[in-house]
Design brief:
It contains 3 helices and 3 strands. The protein folds into 2 domains: 86 residues, no CATH class; 60 residues. The mean pLDDT is 87. The longest helix has 30 residues. 15% of the residues are buried. The chain has a 3-stranded antiparallel sheet with strand order 1-2-3. Helices cover 51% and strands 25% of the residues. It is flat, with a radius of gyration of 22 Å. By secondary structure, it is an alpha+beta fold. It binds zinc ion (ZN). Zinc ion binds next to loops.
């Protein structure tokens, strides 16, 4: 039996940022306050350098929080008309499509093995891969369709 001897450090961090939001469709302007949250983990093997481990976990958490902050504002929808930056949405969509294509090719291969003796193997494997692709795409799509978490709009008085 193998036992890990050491300590595991976890840290949470929040990063807050305010930025001017201007809708590209209806022209709505607001101050957007974005709170990003991040988590970090680090290990100290044999309990050596525990302070350094804690510090590494903190740094990782703070880095993740800042990264989440940037992503949240880029994908935030206009609170008035629901507009989102098409460039950002396009980038997320292209990435999702690429992921789905590769995963469905893999799914086709996995479905092919037990079905290959059947006459309808290509159709069945393609059907399974297509179904899988649809499910994966629906999950990934949530990234740019659900309301960005942690973004609060404070309207500017005209
Ligand atoms: Zn708008």
């Amino acid at each position: 039996m193998w036992v890990y001897v050491g300590a595991k450090h976890t840290a949470q961090a929040a990063s807050e940022q305010t930025q001017l939001f201007r809708c590209g469709s209806c022209g709505y302007r607001a101050v957007a306050r974005i709170v990003g949250r991040g988590q970090g983990t680090a290990h100290s093997p044999y309990f050596i350098n525990q302070a350094e481990g804690r510090e590494r976990a903190r740094r990782e958490a703070s880095f993740a929080a800042k990264k989440n902050t940037r992503g949240a504002l880029a994908l935030a929808a206009c609170p008035t008309c629901g507009w989102r930056d098409p460039d950002t949405v396009g980038r997320y969509r292209r990435h999702a499509i690429k992921t789905v294509v590769w995963l469905s090719l893999a799914a086709f291969g996995v479905a092919w093995v037990p079905l290959r003796a059947q006459t309808w193997a290509p159709a069945l494997a393609a059907g399974a891969a297509l179904l899988f692709a649809l499910v994966v795409y629906r999950v990934l799509r949530r990234e740019w369709t659900i309301t960005a978490k942690g973004v609060v709009f404070e309207s500017i008085p005209p």
